[in-house]
Amino acid sequence: MIRVLLAEDQAMVRGALAALLAMEPDIEVVGAVPDGESAWREVQRLQPDILVTDIEMPGLTGLELAQRIARHELPVKVVIVTTFARAGFLRRALEAGVCGYLLKDAPAERLAEALRKVRHGGRAIDPDLAVEAWSEADPLNDRERQVLRLAGEGRTSGEIAAQLNLSQGTVRNYLSEAIGKLGAGNRIEAYRLARQRGLL
User: Fold this and answer.
1) Which of 40, 97, 132, 162 has the greatest number of C-beta atoms within 10 Å?
2) Domains delineated in the chain
3) How far apart are CA 68 and CA 191, in angstroms?
4) Percent helix, strand, coil in the chain (nearest 5)?
5) Cα separation of 161 and 110, whole Å?
């Protein structure tokens, strides 16, 4: 049996995925949780074969979960199922060690096929998105991305500096670099552009 943990913040989608996978004779859904922190706790407690997660969730994102699983060297494979058909997200997911990346509008049977493939050591990536992911470079480094995300959430330079243990001047430099690289007029426009391209 392939033991699967689901992490999805939308209750209806979470229930639909659980019901869909329960119909497969070789797949067992061992848990279903609504946010990233719960997923992290359940990954450690249940030790599933595969974590199926959305990208955007309260607490930890699906990408942050994948990074944490890789950092702790847990033998759990991660498959992302998302609405975000953006090359930037896929590239960052692959860098985080994700084994599968599927879009929610894919045919239902593709998910079960993907889980079997991943369980046996393969990768299951949306092919059109894979081509796009490697044709577009990511201009931001991790610190610029982190600072820009906080700025987009409405934090001031002082608040960002305090949270990240940086000086305000360093924060302003990171923001300035990110704005310049994205060809934006200000931090809000840079945040919006980065979100559109799946860079945050």
Assistant:
1) 40
2) 2-133 (3.40.50.2300), 142-196 (1.10.10.10)
3) 25
4) 50, 15, 35
5) 44
For residue 45, give both structure tokens: 């407690």
What is the pTM for the complete model shown? 0.69
Nearest to 78 by CA among 36, 24, 41, 115: 115
Query: Between vectors from CA 64 to CA 69 and to CA 76, what angle results, nearest 5°?
Result: 25
Do 87 and 133 touch, CB atoms closer than 8 A? yes
Tokens found for residue 12: 């209806």
Q: Tokens for 19, please give them.
A: 């019901």
Tokens 């994205």 correspond to 182
> In the chain, what's the furthest Cα-to-Cα distance?
58
| List of residues 6+ apart from 90 with CB closer than 8 A | 101, 125, 126, 129, 130, 132, 133, 198
